[in-house]
């Protein structure tokens, strides 16, 4: 089964500390939502409120159109999967997966059949009679997922389930987790602090900071068109170039920066319409820089810069640059792998206008 989730003005305080501050979310049935943010941002608190392990100080929760704000965990159509898997070491895998069904009074024969079906879903049907200590970390993670899905929850809550895995296995499991979610169609709400993981698996990402939602949308939108400086900086690497808005008309605005004047269309101002005299911050991803004359579309030159150092990363050169007209600003740019880059080399930088995002500098 699957169900939509509605969170309205949820706030959670612990004494004088506000862990969650007036958070509202509308999650569609069958969506894979990722709550992303640094430690202490409120994402685990929100997950605990969805699971019924915490009650909000104010606000309401609805799942499948039914009021759930103060319903205990055992009576909610949710299951939570934790990072430590919490498997019973003395039980066979089929019994671990069928444990929730046993608690619901399902008979042994039906329980075992359903457990084996879900073990088959995660590629472990042949290991049904093994015990957890005989498995690798990734296999134990699959068993925990099978157990969580076996009780047919409307919403599966995942609290950093891949955090204990090494990088290669974590990436493999990201692909498998996404594929399984699409197959079963259950609504997933997944907590992580890993930006790459969020982009790999999410239908939509919720970027959180200090108990509030900073941004919410598809991974490509969050990365390419962020709506806050925090979201821009947390989702990968970005260069911040301060400036001031000068001329504004119906199509866009001219921004004056230490690197020169840049004319931007309205679409670049993702947090609202620009106003003359307003301070702004231009956000430019390292991969969007190029040498003048390279690339297609409307390109603006940003002056000359000197390479202070560079490193080859296989797909690109990662270069630290000092703009000749603004030596106090440090720029990180990714240059193509075919480019010859040397320390002390002077480059004329440019960027496609459409790749720049301008955000109010008061958010810094």
TrEMBL record:
One of its GO terms (molecular function) is transmembrane transporter activity. GO terms for biological process: putrescine transport. The lineage of its organism: Bacteria, Pseudomonadati, Pseudomonadota, Alphaproteobacteria, Hyphomicrobiales. It comes from Rhizobium altiplani. This is Spermidine/putrescine ABC transporter ATP-binding protein. It holds the Pfam family TOBE_2. Keywords: ATP-binding, Nucleotide-binding, Transport. PANTHER family: SPERMIDINE/PUTRESCINE IMPORT ATP-BINDING PROTEIN POTA (PTHR42781), SPERMIDINE_PUTRESCINE IMPORT ATP-BINDING PROTEIN POTA (PTHR42781:SF4). Belongs to the ABC transporter superfamily.
């Amino acid at each position: 089964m699957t169900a939509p989730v509605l969170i309205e003005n949820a706030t959670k305080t612990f004494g004088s500390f506000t862990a969650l501050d007036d958070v509202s979310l509308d999650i569609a049935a069958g969506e894979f939502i990722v709550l992303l943010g640094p430690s202490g941002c409120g994402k685990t608190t929100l997950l605990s409120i969805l699971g019924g392990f915490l009650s909000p100080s104010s606000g309401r929760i609805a799942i499948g159109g039914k009021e759930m704000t103060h319903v205990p965990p055992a009576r909610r159509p949710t299951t939570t999967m934790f990072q430590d898997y919490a498997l019973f070491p003395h039980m066979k895998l089929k019994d671990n997966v069928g444990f929730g069904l046993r608690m619901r009074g399902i008979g042994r024969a039906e329980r075992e059949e359903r457990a084996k079906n879900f073990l088959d879903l995660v590629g472990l049907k042949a290991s049904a009679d093994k015990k957890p200590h005989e498995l690798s970390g990734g296999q134990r993670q699959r068993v925990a997922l099978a157990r969580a899905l076996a009780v047919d929850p409307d919403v599966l809550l995942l609290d950093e389930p891949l955090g204990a895995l090494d990088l290669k296995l974590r990436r493999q499991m990201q692909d498998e987790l996404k594929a399984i979610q699409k197959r079963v169609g259950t609504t997933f709400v997944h907590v992580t602090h890993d930006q790459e993981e969020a982009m790999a698996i999410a239908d939509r990402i919720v970027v959180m900071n200090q108990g509030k939602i900073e941004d919410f949308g598809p991974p490509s939108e969050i990365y390419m068109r962020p709506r806050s400086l925090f979201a821009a900086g947390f989702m990968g690497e970005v260069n911040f170039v301060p400036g001031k808005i000068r001329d504004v008309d119906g199509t866009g605005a001219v921004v004056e920066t230490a690197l020169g004047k840049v004319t931007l269309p309205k679409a670049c101002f993702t947090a609202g319409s620009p106003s003359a005299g307003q301070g702004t911050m231009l956000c430019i991803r390292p991969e969007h820089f190029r040498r003048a004359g390279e690339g297609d579309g409307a390109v603006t030159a940003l002056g000359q810069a000197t390479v202070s150092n560079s490193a080859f990363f296989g797909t690109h050169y990662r270069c630290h640059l000092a703009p000749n007209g603004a030596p106090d600003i440090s720029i990180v740019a990714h240059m193509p792998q075919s480019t010859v880059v040397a320390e002390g080399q002077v480059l004329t930088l440019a960027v496609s206008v459409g790749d720049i995002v301008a955000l109010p500098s008061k958010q810094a």
